[in-house]
Amino acid sequence: MLEPRPILLSSPTIRCGTTLLQRLLCSSENTLIYGEEIGKDLELQLQIFASRKMVYLHSRQRFATSLDRVMQGDTNDWIPDLMPDIDGYLVALREGSFAGLSYCQQHAEKNGRTLWGFKYPGWQPHLIRMLFDAIPGTRAIYIFRDLADCVRSAKAWGELHSEADTQQFCTQWAGHLRFMLQWQDSNPVLMLKYEELIKEPGRAIEQLRNFLPFEDMKSEVLQYKINNMTEGADSRRDHHNYIEPAALTERESDFIEAAMKAVDSLPKTGS
Predict the structure, then answer these.
(1) CA atoms within 13 A on the CB side of 108
(2) pTM for this one?
(3) Counting beta carbons within 10 angstroms of the beta carbon of residue 223, is it exposed (0 to 12), middle (13 to 18) or buried (19 or more)?
(4) Residue 158 in 3-state DSSP?
(5) What is the pLDDT of residues 101-140, one digit of tens each?
(6) 132 near 4, Cβ under 8 Å?
(7) Each residue of 201-210: pLDDT tens digit?
(8) CB of 135 within 8 A of CB of 26?
């Protein structure tokens, strides 16, 4: 089985710029970043594989003893959960669980894209841990944005329907960002600030190239704002126009301020 080496493109929450960064990376001649459906499939497979692995490793000796007795001709025992060699079975189970991810790699490389991955904004920290554990070759690019701008954009998109939704959104932003600040210290992670990507694209692109050998990214991609669906029939607003950020209530501003304080310090990008 081809050992996958994906790039996870994620962020603390939605509306942080993952789509913009996905478009920039896909403009490179050697890069292909697939969309969120890959992340949804992988989320399910990660949880299944991790849970079954825990069960089999916990009962490894019992399974081995039962198999050994049967192989020696003793079948007068309780064997409805008879298992083959656990280590070999886990290898096969892992290959099956991540066959879709391996195909992504084959597809990308077949089309000359040696760097590949998928984007999924707001991925839960426990899933990031599971991904890095199950697929040791994983790399991550984590883009984060000013929380107030994230909230205003999410409101305009109709993702936040109440102040309680906004409070939960802010809590997630702070918790996920804090996690990644720690995770980057011992894992191949690039932290990238959305505002710097927009204001200093040359510097941001250089940070990306220093992290992985992305080739010939087209900075003009960053000039286009695409925050609505491209086809009218699928549009959330039934038009192709730019969706202006929404205004914040006083309580929402308080939630944002509290979440910002919960993050001790923002990362120094490109370090």
Answers:
(1) 25
(2) 0.89
(3) exposed
(4) coil
(5) 999 999 999 999 999 999 999 999 999 999 999 999 999 9
(6) no
(7) 999 999 999 9
(8) no
